[in-house]
Amino acid sequence: MQDVFTIANKNYKSRLIVGTGKYKDFKQTADAVKASGADIVTVAVRRVNISDKSQPLLMDYLNPKSITYLPNTAGCYTSDEALRTLRLAREIGDWKLVKLEVLGDKKTLYPNMIETIKSAEVLVKENFKVMVYCTDDPILSKKLEDVGVSAIMPLAAPIGSGIGIQNKTNITLIKEQSAVPVIVDAGVGTASDATIAMELGCDGVLINTAIAEAKNPVLMAESMKYAVIAGRKAYKAERMRKRKYGNPSSPQEYLI
Amino acid sequence: MNNLNVAKIQLNGSPYEISSETNLNQLLNELKIKKDKVAIEVNGEIVEKNKYPTVVLNKDDKVEIVHFIGGG
User: Fold this and answer.
1) Nearest CA to A37 among A214, A207, A236, A213?
2) Does A74 touch chain B (CB under 8 A)?
3) A71 touches chain B (CB under 8 A)
4) CA B71 – CA A46 distance, rounded (Å)
5) Given an 8 Å threshold on Cβ–Cβ distance, is B71 in contact with A93?
6) Residues 1 to 40 of A: which have CB under 8 A from any B CB?
7) Residues whose CB is less than 8 angstroms from the CB of residue A245 and which lie 6 or more positions away in sequence, other chains included
8) What is the rounded distance in angstroms from the CA atom of residue B17 to the CA atom of residue A10?
9) Is the ipTM of this complex over 0.95?
């Protein structure tokens, strides 16, 4: 049976979504994205550099016709900033699938959930398909789902921290209660963190820094690809029960 | 003496001089920017791409041209 990953009525092959920030150059970005096997990449909206028009463009390296661009609102601290950014993103090329991220604090980069929910309500009314970066709080996640978002993306840990899932219980609770996809976003540090997220039953993982800041980003991208596949298969396979004591793997009868 | 054929606008936060009666299509051509890769805001309002030829810029207009860059 095929294990389909669906967001806002569209199917994707890979359950790994990757960010495109912090790479050495666009060549490395494109190589890492390719190695990751991701179908969706997050992108930021910024001013065009008017004084140096010779600079290469992301679109020259990652073709938005063959890979899904997921515009984000990284760097926005208010609902107004986030809405402005995503409305501009939609105008660039009619993008409706977007990632909403409204931050509350420059040090922890923790989401401001009051502004996030406010923004999500407006975006859903404007027919955006909104994937929302949020705290790992089951009540606020449910609120987002009630508002009509397309995916809930709780943090594993602060953005760029690389310390992995801090509250497995909350991530599990959020997954159990949600009818929309749950994607762990932010805080993954290495392959095992991504596998754990998938083993908990999450529908996907979004990774940027763990790949971009690895010594060999392209190799780490490939490792994340397999980590997500491994975790997903383990979840589907339904793991063995845990025991307190040992249990022999070889038959105990006819011992010599 | 004021030159009546030029107008100063704010482009992406910096002063920029355009010829009078420049529309958004002409501005993009002058900047060698392809319109399918950007979005434009004039004085805080997003301009739809099909309106670029008809939106003429005036003195002191605040123009923002944005595109996608790498981000997480």
Assistant:
1) A207
2) yes
3) yes
4) 10
5) no
6) 19-23, 26, 29
7) none
8) 45
9) no
From chain A, the residues in CB contact with B14 under 8 A are 50-51
Long-range pairs, A50-56, Cβ under 8 A, ≥24: A50/B11, A50/B12, A50/B14, A50/B16, A50/B31, A50/B65, A51/B14, A53/B31, A53/B32, A53/B33, A56/A26
Contact list in B for residue A87 (CB cut-off 8 A) is 46
How many Cβ atoms sit within 10 Å of the Cβ of residue A95? 20
User: What token pair was written down for A8?
Assistant: 């806002």
Let me know: does B14 contact B63? Beta carbons within 8 Å.
no
3-state secondary structure of A147: helix
Q: How is residue A14 written in tokens?
A: 């890979």
- The residues pairing with A98 across neighbouring beta strands, listed in sequence order, are A130
Q: What is the pLDDT of residues A17-71, one digit of tens each?
A: 999 999 999 999 999 999 999 999 999 999 998 887 777 889 889 999 999 999 9
Please, are residues A153 and A184 in contact by the beta-carbon 8 Å criterion? yes
Query: Would the pTM count as exceeding 0.90?
Result: yes
Token pair for A189: 């540090």
CA distance B37 to chain A (A): 6
CA A55 to the chain's CA centroid: 28
Query: How far is the alpha carbon of B1 from chain A, nearest alpha carbon, in Å?
Result: 27
Residue A153, H or E segment: strand A151-154
User: Catalytic annotation on A99?
Assistant: yes
Q: Least CB-CB distance to A92: which of B13, B32, B37?
A: B37
Q: Do A50 and B70 touch (CB under 8 A)?
A: no
List the Cα angle A153/A156/A157 in 5-degree steps.
Answer: 120
| Distance separating the N- and C-terminal Cα atoms of chain B | 50
Whether residue B33 lies within 8 A of chain A, CB to CB, comes out as: yes
* DSSP H or E run through A34: helix A26-36
